[in-house]
Amino acid sequence: MGLLQDLAGPLSQRFFELGTASQIGVSIFAFLFLTVLINVIVQFLPRNSHEPPLVFHFFPVIGSTVTYGMDPPRFFKENRAKYGDCFTFILLGKKTTVYVGTQGNDFILNGKIRDVCAEEIYTVLTTPVFGKDVVYDCPNSKLMEQKKFMKIALTTDAFRSYVPIISDEVTNYFKKSADFKGKSGIVNLPPKMAQITIFTASHALQGKEIRDKFDETLADLYHDLDMGFSPINFSLHWAPLPWNNRRDHAQRTVAKIYMDTIKERRARGETGAQDMMMHLMNSEYKGGVKVPDHEIAHMMIALLMAGQHSSSSTSSWIMLRLASRPDIMQELYQEQIDNLGADLPPLQYEDLAKLPLNQAIVKETLRLHAPIHSIMRAVKQPMPVPGTKYVIPTDHVLLAAPGVSASDPQYFPNPDLWDPHRWEQGSANAPSIVRNEVEEDDEKIDYGYGLVSKGAGSPYLPFGAGRHRCIGEQFANVQLQTIVAVTVRHFQFSNVDGSDKVIGTDYASLFSRPLEPAPIRWERRDNAVAV
Ligand code: HEM
């Protein structure tokens, strides 16, 4: 009896605990069930007809975050078919209104400064990485002046000097890299293209001194800066987490490297140099204020970071596409022999214009694989959508997705087909509206960084439009076309299994890129010198 009593105490306590635990479990389940039920019922109640339709979802806050995040282009396509060009979905608790198609692109990207705001969305991510007082950590009018300084430095003369620099960097890379030793091999391409991109961009835009530091300290520091761009940092940018601590240390260290270089150059009394840093050192804001050293340093970081992901992702896609179509890679090689001469002289800036297929490769790859799939803006005042009854309220975020019109069969026959020849006149897959045709009579506008086309009617806007339009477009084209032309001189690529398959897209980071590993087979051309 005594033993039973001894046992009964702990057992009843255990039952009590289990009972309590299961009660808590049931309560949580009931709470979740009710939350989902109420959320679903609310979506079936009559809604404000002036707001765009809301994408159906079960869970509040989470909304459509998961389906959007897994494959944004598919999400846009499927919901466009259900709800039309303009619809709202819940992204991490925020009502996010997507407006696709050429009118949507125009509405958002050419939105007025009093209506839409980019910095409110991006600053949490970019300011800790770039540093204070530049890009999205300053009034928009100041950003426009900063873009003007950077754009003016990217002259034809500058591009002329960049082509040999980029060309040599690519050749040296292939010579030195252990992954390209011998006559043939298999390599996971995207990390190689990321390195080639940062070496070529840093050398061309920031000079040899900075470029050489990428073999030592800068590569790791930029990697740490990069971690600050993880999408999770939209919420946790402030948190004292290991990767944020490394980001902050890297930002301070890289900025100091640039500031020390500025001081040394000034002390040397250097004049006449044409590089971006020297140009910024000689620039003045309206009212005659010189650009402070820390802003020059932060703009140098911003320039390199802005271009790195987009250009590196694009160059990887180009090479993977070429591996899936060795016949087109061979055509590119032949194009150089036909137009530049069988001895293939060192590549010059002027040569790029003589290689239309080489240009089309970049253009077509950006049509299908634009690295920036979602462009966001905060809404500053209620925005009526022309031609509809909708008014977008200020608690919504606007999302433009120019990739949707770039793969719309209305403009691009066989839109999912990667066909660089579609950009040739008379091609069966030629676009019904080509950007340049539109630009002829397109409205031009100066937001403070030079005249740009509004691009209002164009379905092809991989570099954006409006006041936030890319200033790196020409540089990226020169960089990418040179990388492709030089690579084609050295190698023939193919898929490892010989098929024409193309790998899927990784949407997990802010910029979309090929899923890894993405191995390809390379074979050195007979006439290329084996290293
Ligand atoms: C294939 C390469 C590239 C692509 C596809 C690309 C795409 C874009 C897009 C879509 C935007 C507009 C973003 C928005 O509206 O919120 C943009 C802005 C910008 N890009 Fe690029 N870009 C590329 C390369 C570069 C390079 C190489 C540089 C620097 C040399 C650069 C510097 C910038 C800057 C400074 C902005 C302005 C941001 C603003 O005004 O808010 N980009 N880019």
From TrEMBL:
Its cofactor is heme. Keywords: Endoplasmic reticulum, Heme, Iron, Membrane, Metal-binding, Monooxygenase, Oxidoreductase, Transmembrane, Transmembrane helix. It is a single-pass membrane protein. It is found in: Endoplasmic reticulum membrane. CDD domains: CYP51-like (cd11042). The keyword Lipid metabolism does not apply. InterPro entries: CYP450_sterol_14alpha_dmase (IPR050529), Cyt_P450 (IPR001128), Cyt_P450_CS (IPR017972), Cyt_P450_E_grp-IV (IPR002403), Cyt_P450_sf (IPR036396). GO terms for molecular function: heme binding; iron ion binding; sterol 14-demethylase activity. The chain crosses the membrane at residues 20-42, 54-70. One of its GO terms (cellular component) is endoplasmic reticulum membrane. Belongs to the cytochrome P450 family. This is Cytochrome P450 51. It comes from Apodospora peruviana.
